Amino acid sequence: CGVFGVIGVADAANFVALGLHALQHRGQEAAGIVSHHPEHGFNSARRFGYVRDNFTNQKVMDTLPGELAIGHVRYSTAGSKGATAIRDVQPFFGEFSMGGAAIAHNGNLTNAAQLRKELIERGSIFQSSSDSECIIHLMARSIQRTVPERMKDALRRVEGAFSVIAMTRTKLIGVRDPLGVRPLVLGRVGEGYALSSETCGLDIIGADFVREVEPGEMVVIEDGEITSSRPFAPATSRFCIFEHVYFSRPDSILGGRSVYETRRQIGVELAREAPVEADLVCPVPDSGTPAAIGYSQESGIPYAMGIIRNQYMGRTFIEPTEQIRNMGVRLKLNVNRGLIKGKRIILVDDSVVRGTTSRKIKDMILDAGAAEVHFRIASPPTAWPCFYGVDTPERSKLLAANMSEEEMRDWIGVDSLRFISLDGLYRAAGEPEGRDPRRPQYCDACFSGEYPVAPSDKLAEGFEM
Ligand code: 5GP
Ligand code: SF4
Ligand code: MG
Question: Which residues, including other chains, have CB under 8 Å from residue 417's CB and lie 6 or more apart?
């Protein structure tokens, strides 16, 4: 998911709509905005579909007045069962003794099922099926006198990954979990401030990047003043390395590193680790593009657009059902036949999850008359599900959980298949010594199986680490 908020600018909701539009790659199912105006109070709009199709409508935007607003783009993760209902669309709103508050959450809480059960037994009335709603109910039960203090109480009880943006009548609040698994940045816009999942959200509204909200930090912005606090026990940060590989936009800066540059460097590392003789390096667009550029630069093999993407389709993976996803590959990608015929092709993609994409692309490329197909993957084999907010399927559906690399190569049906090593990935992400096995610098659980936060709900369901 993506979260965005602004305070201290006229028509804040318009800024939020733009910010969410820049964060659309983080979730395409639905979007919501809550605003506050001193006379009109809190207002909200929640819609299915793209931001641009809902929040450019003047009638909708007119219902969201005020100088303070937050928003959310939704991408449903493993925890949510079935299709999204509109009641699952954030921000969530709660009315407390000291006034209302709205929250928007990116990440996934790993103990939400237990918390929900306990809260329901004690009388909470849940409105949605979302893990994030626990935060509002925990806030309602807190005895603290202010919303930020109630948030601290609530967030000390939840486990997992969270970057949360919240608002009251007068405050914009941002928090990151102690490990800082998901991103959150702070920007300055005119006389006001903005919080965004990624820096590309700041760019679109012309905000200046100020700094990241740090792992384990809460910032409260009111009347142009920022107050920072540390509600949690100190921990070593474990930012999601997959944000660098795939999830974030390449024009964002994460942890002081350009995502594009990390991806290009992954390609460089891949070319060193897994060279092969070929005629062309082609990305699987768009997610494989920067790594393909790096591979081409390092290997000296020419880069070419062997696969063309239809710009009007979304991210295939994000389509929630398998059937739609299966069609999606063809609806979205097509082979540039004239270029491919008779050539030995290196295809660079960001990841292999179920393997559906790779297999279909291989078929299309061979159909177009390629002489050889070599897959190079910009992440290590995805052998474990993510429980922190990225939608990976259960283990049984992960190709790498069930097959060796050689078996995967066979199943996909290509001449060679190589993945970047974990150390190579860490080097590309700015760790020259690679991964520190005693204190890994990032979360890489989907590759290593080392979960930095025990997925307690899943363990209770019988998941074996
Ligand atoms: P597969 O077809 O192997 O299941 O999925 C791989 C494709 O989906 C890749 O081309 C990649 O761009 C995209 N993808 C890979 N991993 C993820 C993920 O965890 N989340 C999302 N949203 N997309 C992914
Ligand atoms: Fe990111 Fe993978 Fe960790 Fe999930 S498990 S937070 S995708 S690195
Ligand atoms: Mg892709």
Answer: 374, 375, 377, 405, 408, 409
> What are the catalytic residues?
1
What residues are designated binding site for Mg(2+)? 287, 349-350
Q: Is 247 helix (H, G, I), strand (E, B) or coil?
A: helix
> By the 8 A CB rule, do 170 and 223 touch?
yes
Question: SS3 sequence, 85-116?
Answer: CHHHCCCEEEEECCEEEEEEEECCECCHHHHH
- The class (CATH top level) of 263-429 is alpha beta
User: How many Å lie between the centroid of ligand 1 and the Cα of residue 352?
Assistant: 6
240 lines ligand 2 (CB under 6 A): yes
Inform me whether the pLDDT recorded for 346 exceeds 80: yes
CA dist., res. 136 & res. 270, Å (int): 45
Ligand 1 nearest-atom number relative to CA 382: 16
Q: Which ligand places an atom closest to the C-alpha of 387? A: 2
Ligand found nearest the CA of 384: 2
| Architecture of the domain spanning 2-237 | 4-Layer Sandwich (3.60)
The tens digit of pLDDT for each residue in 38-95 reads: 999 999 999 999 999 999 999 999 999 999 999 999 987 644 555 678 999 999 999 9
Residue intervals of the chain classified under CATH 3.60.20.10 are 2-237
423/447 Cα distance (integer angstroms): 12
Residue 352 to residues 19, 157, 295, 321, 444, Cα–Cα distance (Å): 30, 35, 18, 17, 15
Q: For the sheet with 92-96, list strands across it.
A: 92-96, 99-106, 163-167, 172-176, 218-222, 225-229
Give CA 86 to chain center in angstroms: 20
Q: Which atom of ligand 1 is nearest to the CA of 325?
A: 2
With tokens 């733009």, the residue in question is: 18
Looking from the CA of residue 389, the nearest atom of ligand 2 is 4
- Mutational test site, ligand 2, from 75, 162, 181, max ligand atoms within 8 Å of CB: 181
Instruction: Please give the single-letter amino acid code of residue 417.
Output: L
Interface TM-score (ipTM) > 0.85: yes
Q: Give span(s): CATH 3.40.50.2020, the chain.
A: 263-429
